[in-house]
Amino acid sequence: MLKLRAASILDLKLLRLWDTKQHIIDCDPDSDWNWEIELKRQPVWREQLMIVLNGNAIGMIQIIDPYEEETHYWGEIAQSKRAIDIWIGEEEYLSQGYGTIAMGLAIARCFQQPEITGILVDPLKNNINAHRFYERLGFEFLEERIFEGLECYVYELKKPL
Question: Which residues form the N-acetyltransferase domain (predicted)?
Answer without folding.
Answer: 2-161
